[in-house]
């Protein structure tokens, strides 16, 4: 395989992994806590469903491309979180069109008062965007804080365990880093998202514990399940990217043809 083709392969795989990571993270912020679902005994926000993919992607990038690339992707994700929160806030503060020019679906009529995630109680009517903003902006802010702590924690712990095990036991560093970082993420995202509601007595401490427990149980189970896909993908991609057992997919500088 010649050098340009090999380099193209390495960059192409990184782009795909980065795209899946950013897509899953953005989907979490877009749908957020707009709906809660019952998944067996677990009560989950629908936005949590794609989130475990982010940890699989960062573990793959950490293993194949090194800590610098993984940290770079986490930083890009943080910037994207800030961008999403900024657009949501801008859309909320810019004046609406006159009532007579509003489309009929922009105003929702309420049969009873509704307590929003930010602690406000709305009666009679609410704008559709205001409802979306109330159910997503707080979740985006919470996920941004949790994201910074959990993703950087995941990358650092992954490489700490890799050094400790001298590059062996991929299953150990994958599960150790992900299980701890997922706990950090679950506690922070639920605590920040529902902090105002809990403070105003609109949700009980027991309900918060159920949400944290369900959130973490789902993510922890997903982390354990993704061990097999991680092994499979690492083995396949190391051959595809022409990498040795402990090599990283860096820029190829050797002018000679690589076989």
Report on this structure.
By secondary structure, the protein is mainly α. It has one domain: Arp2/3 complex 21 kDa subunit ARPC3, CATH 1.10.1760. It has helices spanning 3-31, 52-65, 67-93, 128-164, 170-193, 195-199, 205-225, 227-240, and strands spanning 36-39, 42-45, 107-109, 114-115, 121-122, 125-127. The N and C termini lie close together (5 Å). Mean pLDDT is 79; it is low at 253-259.
What is the topology?
Elements: H1 3-31, E1 36-39, E2 42-45, H2 52-65, H3 67-93, E3 107-109, E4 114-115, E5 121-122, E6 125-127, H4 128-164, H5 170-193, H6 195-199, H7 205-225, H8 227-240
Antiparallel strand pairs: 1-2, 3-6, 4-5
Helix pairs in contact: 1-2, 1-3, 1-4, 2-3, 2-4, 2-8, 3-4, 4-5, 5-7
Write the element-wise H/E pattern from the N-terminal end onward: HEEHHEEEEHHHHH
> So what's the overall shape?
elongated
Give the proportion of residues in helices: 55-70%
Instruction: State the distance separating the first and last CA atoms.
Output: 5 Å
Low-confidence runs of at least 5 consecutive residues:
253-259
How much is the average pLDDT?
A: 79
**Main sheet attributes: strand count, strand direction, barrel closure:** 2 strands, antiparallel
Q: Which strand-content bin applies to the residues? A: 5-15%
CATH-defined topology: Arp2/3 complex 21 kDa subunit ARPC3
Number of domains: 1
Strand order of the largest sheet: 1-2
Q: Helix tally?
A: 8
Task: Kindly provide the radius of gyration, computed on alpha-carbon positions and rounded to a whole number of angstroms.
Answer: 22 Å
Which second-level CATH architecture applies? Orthogonal Bundle
Total DSSP E strands: 6
* Derived structural class: mainly alpha
What would CATH call the class? Answer: Mainly Alpha
